[in-house]
Structures are given as structure tokens and as C-alpha cells.
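Now for a typical sample entry:
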Amino acid sequence: MKKLSWAVALLLLWPSYSSSEEVYGSTNNAAQIGLNWVMTNILPQQAGLEVNGLVYQYTAVKDPETDMIVYVQNEYADGNGYVFRNADDWSGLPGNTINKSFVFPNLSATLWGPGSIEIDGEGSVVDPSVIYTYKYDTCFDPQSDPSCPGYEEPIEIPEIDIYDPLQDDLVLEQLEQKAQIDQEQEEEDRKRRQRENAVQDALETLLGDGNNPGLVDPVAEALALALTSKVLPTTYYSTIEGGEYLESLILDGGNIQDNRKARRSNLAQQLLHQQMVNAQYELNQQETK
């Protein structure tokens, strides 16, 4: 293991920095519990950490006549290829111990995904050791330490009591009153619509075929007459002076054409009559309250 120790020491000194804010280190053996490992369990979880070297050693056990290739590797963290992969071809060779070291240009720890030692062929690997060297700046985040360059004193945000109007008894009382008023207004609107529908039905019945007693509702007729008696002037009921007017019109083989102008006039009078009935009904309702 002396060769491995010297290799680790060499990597720790490469390159040389004098900044007191940079920390250098090495990991424990990543392969000490198996041929697969997770880098988040191996590297320190330090902001801004970078991997700058790797040293591995293992002993290959195999028959000299067999083929075997050993891969020491790390996938990219996103699974797209390998950030590091080295192959040792033992094909046609007897087993032996090997150690190698590599220097990286300060690769961010966020790039390093799962690591492993993979065997392709016949044989095995014993006593594996994989060690990573790294560095990080203790002031990578200036706010981590007041002594770091660029550190800014945090601004104290005063605690503000958040007013919840739904916890205010006065507001709740006002909301309850408004809800009650809205409910009363809704009930009043419903009664008003019922009154309007009743007047409309009475007017439609009254304006039915007067020659057919079955089409005239006596109650509706009485209601309509009672309403008109308070709305229309007394001159509306004045008797036309004179005697009996006998019909003397004789048509010569034709029919009387509908008078469209008279029909529009009748419709206008009907609408006016309905408005007067509605007004009288509302007046009576107010007087009874």
C-alpha cells in the first residue's frame, strides 16, 4: 500500500495553492463494501466541492489463459455516459495487483454519478480500493461565514402581525348581517315575481274569449275589475248617450280584411292596461303592510 499512499500524497499537492480559504482532502475507500458505490455517500456534501483526482488499486485473480477486462468508472450524474472510465485488459495475463492515479481539471462534484468496478470476462477482483481527491472553497458561499469576502450582514425583517379579518368579531357580525339582508332581499324578489306572475295570469285570463264563460276565471275577472276601478277615471265608464245603433253594413260577396293598424292599437292598449294593473297591485300591497 506504500505506492498508493505516495500517489494520494502527490495528488493532494497538485496543483499547489496558497489561499487559506481552499481546503483539500481525500475520501475513504469507495469500494470497501462492494464494487458499486454512490458518490453522495463518498464525497463531503460541501458547496462548491470539486474532484481533482482519483487513485485506484486492486488485485486481479484469474487464469493466465482466460480473457478479462476490468473497468473502473463513474457515470455522469444525469446518466448520459461516463465522467470517468478506465479499462485494464488482463487477457492472456496472470493475475496481479495494479494501482493507477489520475488528475482531473477540478470537475464539479455535481457531475459525478454512481461509481463501480466492472468485470468483463473470467476472473475476479479482490482488495479493491478507490479514493477520490477533492478541494473546496470555504467561502464558496460568502454568507456561510462573516469572515468571508463579500459577506453581507443579513437584513433583519421585522415580524409583522398579519390581520385576519375573519377573526374579527365586528367583521363577522357585519358579514352575518349582510347575509341576512341578502336572504331577505332574495325572499322579497321571489314574492315579487309571484305577484307579477299572478297578475299576468289574471290579465291573460281576462283577455280571453268573453263569449265562452269557461275561459273566464271569475276570481281573476273580479280582481282585474277591482284593480281597474281604482286606476281608471270615472269618465272611463261614462255611458254613451243615444239609442240603439243597428248594423247597416252589407258586404258585397267579400270578407272583411284584418285591420293591422287597429291590431297594433289594441296591443298598445293591452300593454298600457297591464302596466296600470301592476301599479295598482303594488299600491294595494303597500297599503296592506
Observations:
- Confidence is low (pLDDT under 50) at residues 6-20.
- Residues 169-206 form the longest helix (38 residues).
- DSSP finds four helices and eight strands in the chain.
- The helical segments are 2-12, 169-206, 218-231, 260-288.
